[in-house]
């Protein structure tokens, strides 16, 4: 079984300050990890993914995430937040142990508000 | 949202009626997915299909049906058996090659309201 937890429903930061959105996961084997962003009444947009290799992954719009296997975490970060980063963020995991399991499990989402 | 279209954007139906949501992709992706999104619950998988003429139930398939007659199309029917059909429905597709995992691309969604 695989699952994702996003412990914060909301994150509020001032523009220009660092932004962190937390994500922890649970899988039986090795994880594939993803971050998506959703703007109101829109579909999800892919930000970045961790498959293998460097633990620090860089993605779209200046976002990055750090894979920490010992803490089973994959926190999303941005050094300097913009008002336009205000949106709903989802972490997702896929357990690659099951060769025929193509399912992606999503967290409940974290609403980010960046104030000017 | 590019490459995946969902129609209509908003849909209103009376209780007891079946309704079909359209999803089309031109990305030549093998796999397609349907999710339901409710406030505070993230996305829940309804059905997914890895190849044409084959599909599998997700976590909340009851009251829904799908077909995959063409690689580009994966329509979802919300039947009258679905007890709480009002939700935001998202279609996604992904390129799948062996054990390689590629990100899913999402359509713009259809907001279904049943009264």
- Beta-strand content estimate of chain A: over 45%
Main sheet properties of chain A? 6 strands, mixed
Assembly state here? heterodimer
Q: How does the overall form of chain A come out from the CA principal axes?
A: globular
How many DSSP helices of chain A? 0
Radius of gyration of chain A: 14 Å
Order of helices and strands of chain A: EEEEEEEEEEEE
Largest interface: A-B, 23 and 30 residues
Give the low-confidence spans of chain A: none
Q: Treating each run of at least 4 consecutive H or I residues as one helix, how many helices of chain B?
A: 0
Strands of chain B, count: 13
Largest sheet of chain B: 7 strands, mixed
List low-confidence stretches of chain B. Answer: none
Q: Which structural class is indicated by helix and strand composition of chain A?
A: mainly beta
Radius of gyration of chain B: 13 Å
Distance between the termini of chain A: 41 Å
Helix content of chain A: under 10%
Q: Cα distance, first to last residue of chain B?
A: 29 Å
Percent of residues in helices of chain B: under 10%
Structural class of chain B: mainly beta
Q: What is the strand content of chain B? A: over 45%
């Amino acid at each position: 079984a695989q699952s994702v937890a996003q412990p914060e429903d909301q994150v509020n930061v001032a523009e220009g300050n660092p932004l962190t959105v937390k994500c922890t996961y649970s899988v039986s084997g090795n994880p594939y990890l993803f971050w998506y962003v959703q703007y109101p009444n829109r579909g999800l947009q892919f930000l970045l993914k961790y498959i293998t290799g460097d633990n620090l992954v860089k993605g779209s719009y200046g976002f990055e995430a750090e894979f920490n296997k010992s803490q089973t975490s994959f926190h999303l970060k941005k050094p300097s937040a913009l008002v336009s980063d205000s949106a709903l963020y989802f972490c997702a995991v896929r357990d690659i142990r099951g060769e025929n399991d193509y399912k992606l499990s999503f967290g409940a989402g974290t609403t980010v508000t960046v104030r000017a | 949202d590019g490459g995946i279209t969902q129609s209509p954007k908003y849909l209103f139906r009376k209780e007891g009626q079946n309704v079909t949501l359209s999803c089309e992709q031109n990305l030549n992706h093998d796999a397609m997915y349907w999710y339901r999104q409710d406030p505070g619950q993230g996305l829940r998988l309804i059905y997914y299909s890895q190849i044409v003429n084959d599909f599998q139930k997700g976590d909340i398939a009851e009251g829904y049906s799908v077909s995959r007659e063409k690689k580009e199309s994966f329509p979802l029917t919300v039947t009258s058996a679905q007890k709480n059909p009002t939700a935001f429905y998202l279609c996604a597709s992904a390129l799948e090659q062996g054990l390689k995992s590629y990100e899913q691309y999402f359509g713009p969604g259809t907001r279904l309201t049943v009264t």
